[in-house]
Amino acid sequence: MHPMLLLLLWGSLTLMETWAGSHSLMYFSTAMSRHGPGEPRFITGGYVDNTQFGRFDNDSPGQSVELRAPWAGQVRQKELDEETRNQRNQAQWFKALLQDLRGLYNQSNNNGSHTLQRMCGCEVGPDGSLLRGCEQFAYDGADYIALNWDLRSWTPADTVAQITRRQWEALGRAERVRNCVQDRCLTWLHRLLELGKEVLQRT
Ligand SMILES: *[C@@H]1O[C@H](CO)[C@@H](O)[C@H](O)[C@H]1NC(C)=O
Ligand SMILES: *[C@@H]1O[C@H](CO)[C@@H](O)[C@H](O)[C@H]1NC(C)=O
């Protein structure tokens, strides 16, 4: 899925504008519950600036991360396997959160499909240092909860999201996301910018 397509499903989303000379790594994930006992569909697209480099779809044979940009073909198998493991874990985490939200919104008695989306990533300046990171969720197309720019606190969009905020505060989730932004996301962005420099750093 193209990010713009996914974004159309969002509410009043504050998009990360890319500043001149800066670069961003963004992941757009969508989980959709289905009728019956099946696993939710889970799709993630990974983008450097506006270029898609990878995709994960739990409906694909093999359930592995697939590379989408020729330059990303130089990513090592070991790194790809790690991303695949990570995406499979994410799929399970989204599944559990979808179930929770269905309960919290009193939707347990209807069989409708529900959608949970996340946009997350990091942005670096021209010198490669971290400018900011983000993580935002939407449920059924409306803003749900977002990590604030301080990467320490959450903004819930409604009373159900306040419950999630309390749970995540108790779990110290902001700290984990912050570590992820400052470590994994940053490392990946530098790596991908190096691999794709012919294409990505041309302005
Ligand atoms: C769900 O139902 C409970 C009990 O009736 C109610 O207190 C709660 O506000 C409802 N939640 C939503 C999101 O409507
Ligand atoms: C949900 O699906 C089950 C099994 O398919 C069906 O028996 C039930 O009536 C459905 N409930 C609603 C509210 O549509």
Structure description:
With 203 residues, the chain is α+β, with helices and mostly antiparallel strands. The chain has helices at residues 3-8, 77-104, 159-171, 173-195, 197-200, and strands at residues 23-32, 41-48, 51-57, 66-67, 115-124, 130-139, 142-147, 154-156. The longest helix has 28 residues, at 77-104. Mean pLDDT is 88; it is low at 1-5 and 7-15. The protein binds 2-acetamido-2-deoxy-beta-D-glucopyranose (NAG) (2 copies).
Summarize the structure.
This protein is of the alpha+beta class and 203 residues long. It has helices spanning 3-8, 77-104, 159-171, 173-195, 197-200; strands at 23-32, 41-48, 51-57, 66-67, 115-124, 130-139, 142-147, 154-156.
Low-confidence stretches: 1-5, 7-15
Q: Beta-sheet strand percentage?
A: 25-35%
Class per helix and strand makeup: alpha+beta
Q: Report the count of strand segments.
A: 8
* Small molecules held by this entry: 2-acetamido-2-deoxy-beta-D-glucopyranose
Here the CATH topology equals Murine Class I Major Histocompatibility Complex, H2-DB, Chain A, domain 1
Radius of gyration: 17 Å
The helix content, as a percent range, equals 25-40%
Overall tally of structural domains: 1
Shape: globular
How would a textbook summarize the main sheet?
8 strands, antiparallel
Distance between the termini: 25 Å
Question: Do you know the CATH architecture?
Answer: 2-Layer Sandwich
